[in-house]
Every structure is written in C-alpha cells, then in structure tokens.
Amino acid sequence: MASDHSTPETANGNVITKRFPIVIDQQPYEWFPPTITAEELRHLASLPAADTVDLFHKVPGKGDIAVLPGSTVDLTEVIGPDHFSSAAVGARSGDGRFLLLPTDYATLLSNGVQHSEDADQRILILKSFPLPPGLYKQERVDVLIKIPPGYGDQGIDMFWTCPRLELLSGQAINATMDIGSSENIQWEGREYTRWSRHWNGYGDTPWRPGLDAIHTILSRVRWCLANPNGTL
To answer: In the predicted model, is pLDDT for residue 145 greater than 90?
Structure first.
C-alpha cells in the first residue's frame, strides 16, 4: 500500500497516528491529515494535469462527484476508504457507463488514439490506427476489440480489423479470416475480420491483473500488426 508524504501532527503532546485509507483508480493509499486537496490527490496518484484528466469522488448515495481544482475533500465523511477515479476530460458525459478502466481513457488520449465504444455490447474500436510503413497495402485500420466482463482481472483474447489487411508482399497472414467468415464481426454496417491472437498460453505473456490495462492491449496490437506472421 502506498503511503502519503505528509508528517503526522501532534495533539496535547501526543503524535496523531491515524491515517485515512483512500483508493485512487483501484490503487490503495493512506493519507494524513483528514482532508486532502484535489492537487494532493493528483500528486499522490501521479495523475496528469486537470486540463486532460477529470477526477471523481465516489460518495455513497450521491454517485461520482467531480473533484475540482482547488477543492478539498473531507475524508471523515465516508465510512471506510474514500474511493476516487480519473477519466479523460469529457469521457464521463452521457449515461455514466464505461467500458474501460478510468485510467485507460487518459492513456488513449496521451497516445493520440481515437476510439469509440459500446459498453452494452462491450465493443471498443481503435479508429484509424496507424500501420507499420512499407508492410501493408493500407496505411491505417480500424481495430475492433471485445472487452471481457472481467476486464482488469483478465485481458483480451483476439481482435478484428476493418478493412481486411493485405501485405504488400502478397503473402497470406496466418490465422486471419477471409471476408464472409462466420468468425468475423459485423459492426455498424462494416465487416471486421478476425485476427486469432490468443493471449493466454504463450509462456511469458499472461495477463497480469492490477498491472496490465489498455497500454498493454495497445502494445500487443502494435506488435501483432508489426509481426503479422510472428509467434506470440
């Protein structure tokens, strides 16, 4: 558990040792004194600046309350750990349901990856994803990823692309489906062809709960697209 950088105060000559448990983006911390500012929360969790990432306080019975720059949170008002989460600016508009982990949206933003999602169908689209130069007939591709219900504790299994990718060499891409295959996904009037690239069972590449997230998925998709006939 990460600790804060503050020093306990004293009262009547006795050192106050009570620390308040808080959780930021699923990471536990301890804090003293019993109040914490928005800036201290961001510093504690190494969050990006407020103009790129919003911060929220989950208050029982009230939902997620925005923690605005310059504001202070009283850690004595909630029984048990105070829970906080972050999201890219504007990502929490709408009905409040999200497909990814809160920090994933900031990662997508910092990587310049445009995306769309459908939380009900658990579909994530990486839009106009750049391809390695000189390898494919195409320069960019939309990548469809099915996010499992247990995402965070488990990762993705495979992905789909639109259009179907073709190598400049004319060589076939192993373990990919042709147009019309029942393994492909029809989404919003377009056909995404499957790349069968399984995560588990490849030696030193298992999903690591608590460590892996969208940054791992992006890295894996990039590797697979750069090594279309490589072995995971």
So the answer is: yes
